[in-house]
Amino acid sequence: MRKQYLFVANWKMNFNINQEFNFATHNYDDLIKLSEDSNTTIILCPSFLSLYDLNKIFKETKINIGAQDCSPHSKGPYTGQISAESLSFTECKYCIIGHSERREFNKEIDAEIAKKFMQLINHKISPILCIGEKLQEYKENKTLDILKYQLEKIFNVINTEIISQNLPIIIAYEPIWAIGSGSTASIDYLENIFTWLKIQIENLEKKINCKLLYGGSISPDNAKSLKSVKLIDGFLIGKSSLDFQEFKKIVEL
Ligand code: 13P
Questions:
Q1: What's the CA-to-centroid distance between 77 and ligand 1, angstroms?
Q2: What does the longest C-alpha to C-alpha distance in the chain come to?
Q3: Does the pLDDT at position 161 exceed 80?
Q4: CA-CA distance, 88 to 167, in Å (whole number)?
Q5: Is the CB of 125 under 6 A from ligand 1?
Q6: What is residue 129's DSSP assignment?
Q7: Are 120 and 86 in contact (CB under 8 A)?
Q8: Does position 164 have pLDDT exceeding 80, yes or no?
Q9: Residue nearest to atom 7 of ligand 1 (CA)
Q10: Which of 33, 60, 85, 131 is the most buried (most CB within 10 A)?
Q11: Tally of CB atoms within 10 A around 56
C-alpha cells in the first residue's frame, strides 16, 4: 500500500500575487487530480495577500491553503502583523512558523515562535513548525542539541495545553545548509534524525497527532530516495514548488 504523504509548497516571496493566482488557475485541474489520491495531501502556502483568493478558488476541493507566518499576538498595536484569527477567516488550515529565513532575517526567537504556535492552536490552524541547524552546527555535530533547544519551548506548551480535535501538528526538519543549496542530507543521516524526532514526540506527556516533514533542496531527482526514509510523512518544498511540473513529479514519484 502507498504511504500517506503531505506535500507543502512554500512559495516564500518568489511570486507576485498575479503569478500566485495564475499558478492556481492554470494548474487547477491537475492540482485537483493530484489531490484526489487519498494518500496525498497538498498544501499551497502563498503570500498573505493571496490567501483569501486561493482559498476561494480551491473551496470545496481537497487542496489546502496555508500561510507562511502569523503574529505571536492575538490583536493590538502591531503594525504590519497578521493575526491567527484573521488567517482563520481566510479559511487557512495550516501556517508555517519558525522558518529559518524568519529566524535569520526577522531575528525570531523560540519564545516568540512558541507564542505563534499557541495563537494557531487557539484558532484551530495546524502549525508547520520549522526547525534545523546551520552548516557550522552540522559540522560540529551539534544538530541534536540545536533541535532539542528549538523544540523545548514548543513542547512545554504542548505538555500544558490540550490540543483540541486531534489537530495535526506538523514539524518540518529543514537543515539550513540544505535550503536552496542543491545538496540534501544523506539518507542515513535523515534516518537518525527522524528516529530521534519520533522518540521526542512519543515521550511527550500529552499525546499529539504529529506529522514529520523534511525540507531542503527537494527536487524530482532526489524525491524518490528521500521517500525511502520511513519516518518522513511529507516534504516542505521551496524552489521546486514554483514549477508545477517539478512539483507534480515530486508528488507522483
Ligand atoms: P528549497 O526547496 O528551495 O531548498 O527551500 C526549502 C524551504 O525552505 C522550504 O521551506
A1: 32
A2: 51
A3: no
A4: 14
A5: no
A6: E
A7: no
A8: no
A9: 238
A10: 131
A11: 12
72 lines ligand 1 (CB under 6 A): no
Between the two ends of the chain, the Cα-to-Cα distance in Å is 14
Shortest CA distance to 99 belongs to which of 80, 127, 121, 118? 127
Which residue is associated with the grid cell 487542496? 63
Give the range of the structural domain holding residue 176, as residue numbers without chain letter.
5-252
Task: Taking each helix axis as running N to C, give the angle between helix 17-26 and helix 28-35, from 0 to 180 degrees, rounded to the nearest 10.
Answer: 60
Residue, of 1 and 125, whose pLDDT is higher = 125
Q: How many domains does the chain have?
A: 1
Confidence band (pLDDT; 50, 70, 90) for 185? confident
Q: What is the 217 CA–ligand 1 centroid distance (Å)? A: 6
Q: Is the CB of 215 under 6 A from ligand 1?
A: yes
pLDDT per position as a tens digit, 141-150: 999 999 999 9
Residue 20 has pLDDT above 70, yes or no: yes
Q: What is the CATH number of the domain that holds 170?
A: 3.20.20.70
Shortest-distance Cα residue to atom 9 of ligand 1:
238
Q: Is 239 in the pocket of ligand 1 (CB under 6 A)?
A: yes
Residue type, 71: S
**58 in Cβ contact with 86 (< 8 Å):** no
Instruction: Report the pLDDT value the prediction gives residue 130, as an integer from 0 to 100.
Output: 98
d(CA 207, CA 43): 24
